[in-house]
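**User:**
If convenient, please work through this fold.
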Amino acid sequence: MTDYSDEEQRIISYLRESATRGEQYFRAKNIAKAIGLSSKQVGARLPHLAEKTDEIDIEKWGRARSTTWKVTIS
């Protein structure tokens, strides 16, 4: 099993719970606001988590003013 930092665990938990409720698209600033981190902290970790985690699929989806991430349960 992969070891996650506290921040990574918080991000994964939030994304897993939100995806279970049917949400699929996220922005780092919205995740950060919900879990008490900065958007920079979240945005820096999402690409690494996309490669690191098997629990959820994290895909860079679109980039307008900020990157949107598509999240699905594996």
